[in-house]
Write a structure and sequence with these properties.
- Residues about 60-70 have low confidence and may be disordered.
- This protein has helices at about 10-15, 20-30, 40-60, 70-75.
- Helices cover about 55% and strands about 0% of the residues.
- The protein has about 80 residues and is mostly helical.
- It has one domain.
């Protein structure tokens, strides 16, 4: 019996720190390869907000929802 290969979702990737992979998938799906496309930026912001809220609710405080690094820096990091 074979197994079905299901790739990780962009949300899952961002949740587990695999940001670049998540951003690449969102860019392909929503921006036709353009990372600066408004739809790409909107979806990234939404996913980041949810992931931050989840981290805050798991620890019981909103302060801990802020990661050690800046999400904004990741969002505005130039493409390589």
């Amino acid at each position: 019996m074979g197994t079905l290969l299901i790739p990780e979702s962009p949300r899952w990737l961002l949740k587990f720190g695999r940001n670049e992979e998540g951003f690449e998938i969102i860019t392909k799906l929503r921006g036709n390869g353009d990372r600066d496309h408004p739809s790409v930026q909107k979806e990234i912001r939404e996913i980041v907000a949810v992931v931050q809220m989840e981290h805050g609710s798991q620890s019981g405080t909103l302060a801990s929802a802020t990661p050690q690094f800046s999400w904004l820096a990741i969002l505005h990091e130039p493409q390589k």
